[in-house]
Amino acid sequence: KGFDMISYLMYFNNELSGPQQHTKAYAETFHNQFKTKISSKIAFEGFKKMTFRFDEISDIDSKNFIGISSDPAGESILKKFSYEDMKGGKSVDIYSNQCYIHYPYSPPRILATGENYNYELGQDNSSSYDKTVEMMNYTEKVKKVMNSGNYTVVLTENNQLYYCGYKSSFERTNQTC
Q1: Across the 177 residues of the chain, what is the mean pLDDT of every consecutive 10-residue run?
Q2: Is it true that the peptide bond before 104 is cis, omega within 30 degrees of 0?
Q3: Most Cβ neighbours (<10 Å): which of 5, 66, 95, 120?
């Protein structure tokens, strides 16, 4: 695993002619596979919008993401790009003339262990080694995480309620958690 191919599209200002408006560029990054993270800065003066699409032959871990941020440290993530997004040919738009690409980017996750039956969590997990682990990647900010009985409950800033990795079909706007 010596090379990872990152393919990205760049769109010029509206003043350019039609053939000039779409430019496709490829960037190969060679990095030490034992390093924990690679980051690269992409900047083009005069651009107002950049559209990124990663080549489906890129070799990334299916549990990690490619993060696109506005700062070199990767603390202000603008977009995240998953393995499924890459295989599906999805693209993301950045409305800036520069950004930073980070790999691997591991977004916050909430893990729930248990029987995977009737939404039970934790209590019988020690009785067997083959209990399933449920994982959900959150795209919205989490307001509160708590345990209640056999449940792990997550309340987001949009008052969406999640439990045991499943999204419920109701909102809790008038109840305190």
Answers
A1: 38 47 44 58 85 78 82 84 82 88 74 48 47 52 68 73 52 38
A2: yes
A3: 66
